[in-house]
């Protein structure tokens, strides 16, 4: 009975996760004229890869828009990561190892802020950015991501720091290290797996953002791929095949990263959220 429940749950989960991807693949190879026919067949009679050719042919306009969106997403994600990781390490070490007033309350506050969706504050953020002329700016968009993802990064890394024995740091202090040396020479090397997993988590969350860049980025020079894929439209119609093709190709970079570093990702999820 346990095995039956287990395998049934796994199959149900796979269906829920993979069904939209399978449906997107079918749409991406379906010709536009066949897509709106009144028939009961899910598989196209004349499958085509024209949408993939159009996206991957660099000389075409839609291809340039697509790859510009990919590059923009990478830039925004890297800016977010390069700022958020050092701050997360410092904050996590302070919370894990130092004693100060309101320490418990700060940890609770960090946990609460993790549950606040970023798009709930998008209207005041847009107003502030509009006044300061920060719209359509990579760094300004990354700052929104940083403020949103910093609490979860601090929480993950600080929980991992809590599992590291304090005797290691005490031995380092005896050898003449100060707190900065302990962080850079002891804590960071030991915590490479959790730092890599935090890197991946922040990258995946940055890559998948849609509402925030949709409002704060208005030009093709700053729009990330999540927004670009929703804007493949012709003069009178929405090009569903091209949109789904771009969406499928857009998930390849994060999928590759997740597969390569899946062990770090699993370790980060299991260890970082352990407390």
Question: What is the CA-based Rg, rounded?
Answer: 23 Å
N to C succession of SSEs: HHHHHHHHHHHHHHH
Please report the number of helical segments: 15
Which word captures the global form? Answer: globular
Count every beta strand, where a strand is a DSSP E run of 2 or more residues. 0
Largest beta-sheet characterization? none
Tell me, rounded to a whole number, the average pLDDT.
86
Strand content is under 5%
Share of helix, binned = over 70%
Structural class determined from secondary elements:
mainly alpha
End-to-end gap:
31 Å
List segments where confidence is low: pLDDT < 50 over at least 5 consecutive residues.
none
Plain-language structure description:
- This protein has 275 residues and is mostly helical.
- 72% of the residues lie in helices and 0% in strands.
- It is built from 15 helices and no strands.
- The chain has helices at residues 2-28, 32-35, 50-56, 61-97, 103-113, 122-131, 138-162, 166-174, 179-190, 192-207, 211-216, 225-228, 240-250, 252-260, 262-272.
- The longest helix is centred in the first third of the chain and has 37 residues, at 61-97.
- The protein starts with a helix and ends with a helix.
- The mean pLDDT is 86.
Chart the SSEs and their pairings.
Layout: H1 2-28, H2 32-35, H3 50-56, H4 61-97, H5 103-113, H6 122-131, H7 138-162, H8 166-174, H9 179-190, H10 192-207, H11 211-216, H12 225-228, H13 240-250, H14 252-260, H15 262-272
């Amino acid at each position: 009975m346990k095995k039956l429940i287990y395998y049934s749950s796994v199959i149900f989960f796979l269906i829920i996760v993979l069904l939209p991807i399978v449906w997107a693949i079918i749409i991406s190879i379906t010709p536009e004229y066949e897509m709106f026919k009144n028939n009961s067949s899910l598989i196209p009679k004349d499958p085509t890869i024209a949408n993939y050719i159009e996206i991957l042919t660099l000389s075409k306009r839609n291809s340039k828009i697509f790859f510009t969106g990919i590059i923009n997403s990478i830039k925004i994600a890297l800016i977010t990561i390069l700022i958020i990781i050092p701050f997360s390490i410092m904050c996590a070490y302070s919370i894990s190892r130092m004693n100060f007033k309101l320490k418990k309350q700060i940890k609770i506050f960090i946990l609460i802020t993790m549950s606040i969706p970023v798009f709930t504050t998008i209207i005041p953020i847009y107003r502030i950015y509009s006044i300061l002329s920060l719209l359509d700016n990579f760094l300004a968009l990354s700052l929104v991501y940083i403020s949103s993802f910093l609490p979860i990064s601090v929480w993950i890394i600080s929980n991992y720091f809590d599992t590291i024995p304090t005797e290691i740091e005490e031995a380092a202090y005896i050898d003449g290290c100060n707190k900065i040396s302990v962080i850079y020479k002891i804590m960071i090397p030991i915590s490479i797996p959790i730092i890599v997993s935090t890197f991946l988590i922040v990258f995946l969350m940055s890559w998948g953002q849609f509402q925030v860049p949709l409002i704060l980025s208005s030009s093709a020079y700053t729009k990330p791929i999540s927004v670009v894929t929703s804007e493949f439209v012709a003069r009178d119609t929405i090009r569903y095949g091209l949109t789904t093709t771009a969406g499928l190709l857009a998930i390849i970079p994060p999928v590759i990263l997740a597969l390569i570093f899946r062990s770090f990702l699993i370790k980060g999820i299991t260890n970082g959220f352990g407390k």
